[in-house]
């Protein structure tokens, strides 16, 4: 069972998300919160696998909550909720440790599938969305230079794997594309997260875009 906490300052949004997710046999909404402070408390109390987090809330906002949750032992995957699919606020959320983002208008059947993806530890961020977010970043050029410097120490194979993360591929898909064992890919990913000082696959994938490793 995938345990989920829903966070939004609009009760109707929380109720809508709870109804959609509750229709899936393998998903249970264990709590909802209306600001970031309540969200952190709910995570500590209920130990969910996924948190759907609104970013703009009064009091403790979503960004602050994401940072606090990322510092908890064995934190859940936090997926940012936004109204727009290209939002500079989302970039900050991803760099704070979010596993990806969802537009609030996401169709119900897609929402359920993406929550499952997040629960499995994969990126909830399309390559197209990542490219748009990087392109609109105010400090994009500086971050691109920083990203290229960070990736200079990677081997060519590690860069190949990193580029695949930027495409949003799972370990199994990367293994098939690069003709590697899935266990080998997992080892590459774990090692690169440490080398690049990335909290999760999403941050590494965003870094791949900033460094220009993702060509499509």
From TrEMBL:
Domain Response regulatory: from-to ranges: 3-119
InterPro entries per UniProt: CheY-like_superfamily, NreC/VraR/RcsB-like_REC, Sig_transdc_resp-reg_C-effctor, Sig_transdc_resp-reg_receiver, Tscrpt_reg_LuxR_C, WalR-like
Keywords: DNA-binding, Phosphoprotein, Transcription, Transcription regulation
A GO biological-process term: regulation of DNA-templated transcription
Residues that bear 4-aspartylphosphate: 54
GO molecular function terms listed in the Swiss-Prot or TrEMBL record: DNA binding
Domain HTH luxR-type: 147-212
Domain of life: Bacteria
Cross-referenced PANTHER family: TRANSCRIPTIONAL REGULATORY PROTEIN NARL-RELATED, TWO-COMPONENT RESPONSE REGULATOR
Protein name: DNA-binding response regulator
Organism: Amycolatopsis coloradensis
